[in-house]
Specification:
alpha/beta, two-stranded parallel ribbon, 11 helices
């Protein structure tokens, strides 16, 4: 909260809306006691407000109450540089309807945290590259901005409101395809939002299951086919290893070729994030992360396809 109330952007030009979606901890009381700016409000979602997934429901309620022309969304556990709002606003011109900002995991001293930082950084950089190539696909709701009229123009979450995830990516893809607005990625140190990595393996798996759960529901069927092909590539790696060990050594060679190509390709992508997302890439951590990448993609993709996961203490389906 403090990082939002200490922005360099003129106080009279923005408002901060905290949306309380039936919180069962003391977070609302903490915000009430800590808030200092007059432009900060805490809004509780009414019980009879529109029926849809919890997060989309909260965001839509906040959008309806917001006074501004541009909406920024972020998460309660994020911190923001003092120039964040100003930099994000500057990324908009009349043609831009959606801006995807940079998100990174906070620095960690343990191996699990470092692995997540690399893996998450790779997702952010991939999303940036796809937007730059005119194929907006992935982004992160911890740091996005969009025009309120663009949200209304594409009917918001209307065609995916039943899905628990995708409040960021579905919206970005719809705005990009609207023909009226463009999508842009903001590469700026002054606009990097920082969040914490998952503390446990269980929370990491649940997060990735939630992210994977929306893949089969993209409107772009070609994109779904591409995602399936990527999944089959990951699935083929352990299969090649097993076939090489028990049937023909040629499969071992093909495994080495494919895993090496994967590592080289992803290493050069990750290098683009220095020093925006991390100071250096620790090679032992990178190798370990690349190897763990295979089983986690296979398991998370499969589990996500069947839905059912935990988010913020709630049992959700897709």
């Amino acid at each position: 909260m403090k990082s939002l109330e200490t922005q360099t952007y003129p106080e009279e030009k923005y408002e901060i809306l905290f949306i309380d979606d039936f919180s069962d901890d003391d977070s609302v009381q903490k915000i009430y006691s800590a808030k200092q700016l007059a432009n900060t409000q805490i809004l509780s979602v009414p019980i009879d407000f529109q029926q849809m997934s919890p997060k989309k429901r909260s965001i839509k309620f906040g959008i309806e109450k917001a006074k501004g022309e541009i909406i920024f969304t972020t998460d309660a556990d994020c911190s923001h540089p003092r120039e964040w709002i100003g930099k994000m606003v500057s990324a908009f011109d009349k043609s831009i309807g959606f801006v995807s900002g940079t998100v990174k995991f906070a620095k960690s001293d343990n191996l699990f945290g470092k692995i997540q930082q690399l893996e998450f950084g790779g997702l952010v950089l991939t999303g940036a590259g796809l937007i730059g190539a005119g194929k907006p696909t992935i982004c992160n709701a911890a740091n996005i901005g969009f025009r309120k009229d663009a949200f209304i123009f594409v009917n918001g979450y209307e065609d995916n409101q039943h899905l628990s995830s995708g409040d960021d990516e579905f919206l970005m893809q719809k705005i990009a395809k609207s023909g009226k607005y463009k999508v842009q990625f903001l590469f700026s140190k002054e606009a990097v939002v920082e969040t914490k990595a998952n503390k446990t393996v269980e929370s990491f798996i649940q997060q990735r299951k939630r992210w994977a759960s929306k893949g089969l529901f993209y409107n772009d069927k070609t994109l779904i086919i591409k995602l399936i092909c990527i999944y089959l590539f990951f699935l083929s790696l352990p299969l090649q290893l097993l076939l090489g060990l028990f049937f023909n050594v040629l499969f071992i060679y093909s495994f080495i070729v494919f895993i090496s190509a994967k590592m080289l390709f992803e290493y050069f992508i990750l290098r683009k994030g220095i020093p925006l997302l991390y100071r250096v890439i620790e090679f032992p951590v990178f190798i370990f992360a690349e190897l763990l990448h295979i089983p986690y993609i296979i398991l998370a993709g499969l589990a996500g396809a069947f839905g059912n996961f935990k988010w913020k203490g709630r049992e959700l389906k897709r």
